[in-house]
């Protein structure tokens, strides 16, 4: 158990150091104020698409989809359970504030399964299963769909213009997934020039560190005293990092789900709150302190909670 803890702690500390560097860079004004916008566009339009294209292009085949389709089905089921837990909890945290209740609904449903999950899964499990990132991305497909439809809609304040939820799927992430699947199923990736493949590979490797750097940079833009003052945030973070993952994994155990599905669900739901509860409210003049506070506290604490919980899970499995 201790060996598993040490092996899991190391990549988590790497992610934390990247976040800390971003935090210090902002606090000390070592970078321009618009750096967060630039880095966010680089991450979402270049690095994340590179990771997705590379993974699906090299791993996605008819055989692999046939073998792993059950992962997607279980993911849909777990997402349903997560929503059934999150929506009542959100009402407890924000009884009279409808918009803040939406933020808690999102926070209790989704962890940072994208930026952080995509980074730590191959770092922790890649040596055991070279295809683990591909399987994890299949598992998170329903989550990506839910985030880019229902998730984005509830984070936009009432009265602001809201796009058709399906139009939200027209983004670099989904385009990259579709392109990667097409390249994989047609073997077209094998005829791409080497310099194209190498370029995709270089940017793919930047995804995790840049995502954590960006998280630290954005959080540093808020007064620390304000972010640390709300006691509800600590309770919500405890639920986000420990209780909700434990409940969801327990349900999977009761359903006798495969060990692989339980492991993938752990990394998708034990991750901290991402930055969407800051980015989208900020874009439309909504409340951002709740999301920023939970993002900061949960990203710091997950450095310990994920290794501990994963060690326990390994013993149980």
Q: If you had to describe this structure to a student in words, what would you say it looks like?
A:
This protein is mainly α. The protein has a single domain, classed as Up-down Bundle (Na+/H+ antiporter like fold). Helices cover 77% and strands 0% of the residues. The protein has 14 helices and no strands. The chain has helices spanning 2-27, 35-59, 62-93, 98-109, 115-125, 132-139, 141-155, 172-186, 194-219, 224-227, 231-254, 259-269, 276-283, 289-316. Helix 1 (2-27) packs antiparallel against helix 14. The termini are close together.
Helix content: over 70%
Query: At CATH's second level, what is the architecture?
Result: Up-down Bundle
Number of strands: 0
Global shape: globular
Number of helices: 14
Terminal Cα span = 12 Å
* Low-pLDDT segments, ≥5 res: none
**Radius of gyration over C-alpha positions, nearest whole angstrom:** 19 Å
Major sheet description = none
**What is the overall pLDDT average?**
88
CATH level-3 fold name = Na+/H+ antiporter like fold
Strand content is: under 5%
Question: What is the level 1 CATH name?
Answer: Mainly Alpha
Give helix and strand order, one letter per element, not per position.
Answer: HHHHHHHHHHHHHH
What is the total domain count? 1
Q: Class by helix and strand content?
A: mainly alpha
Summarize the structure.
With 317 residues, this protein is mostly helical. It has helices at residues 2-27, 35-59, 62-93, 98-109, 115-125, 132-139, 141-155, 172-186, 194-219, 224-227, 231-254, 259-269, 276-283, 289-316.
């Amino acid at each position: 158990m201790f060996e598993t803890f040490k092996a899991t702690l190391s990549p988590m500390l790497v992610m934390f150091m990247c976040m800390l560097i971003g935090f210090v860079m902002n606090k000390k004004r070592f970078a321009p104020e618009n750096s967060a916008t630039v880095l966010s566009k680089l991450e979402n339009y270049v690095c994340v698409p590179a990771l997705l294209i590379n993974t699906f292009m090299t791993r996605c085949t008819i055989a692999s989809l046939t073998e792993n389709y059950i992962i997607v089905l279980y993911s849909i089921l777990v997402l349903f359970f997560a929503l059934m837990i999150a929506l009542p909890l959100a009402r407890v945290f924000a009884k009279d504030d409808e918009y803040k209740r939406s933020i808690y609904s999102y926070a209790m449903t989704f962890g940072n399964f994208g930026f952080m999950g995509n980074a730590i899964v191959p770092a922790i499990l890649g040596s055991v299963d070279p295809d683990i990132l591909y399987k994890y991305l299949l598992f998170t497909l329903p989550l990506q769909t839910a985030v880019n439809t229902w998730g984005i809609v509830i984070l936009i304040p009432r009265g602001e213009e809201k796009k058709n939820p399906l139009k939200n799927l027209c983004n670099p992430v989904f385009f990259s997934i579709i392109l990667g699947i097409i390249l994989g199923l047609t073997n077209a990736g094998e005829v791409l020039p080497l310099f194209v493949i190498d370029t995709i590979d270089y940017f793919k490797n930047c995804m995790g560190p840049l995502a954590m750097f960006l998280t630290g940079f954005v959080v540093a833009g808020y007064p620390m005293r304000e972010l640390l003052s709300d006691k509800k945030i600590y309770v919500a973070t405890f639920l986000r990092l420990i209780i909700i993952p434990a409940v969801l994994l327990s349900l999977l155990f009761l359903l006798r789900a495969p060990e692989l599905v339980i492991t993938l669900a752990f990394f998708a739901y034990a991750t901290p709150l991402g930055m969407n509860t800051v980015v989208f409210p900020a874009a439309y003049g909504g409340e951002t302190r709740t999301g920023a506070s939970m993002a900061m506290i949960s990203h710091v604490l997950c450095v310990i909670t994920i290794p501990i919980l994963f060690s326990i899970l390994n013993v149980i499995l």
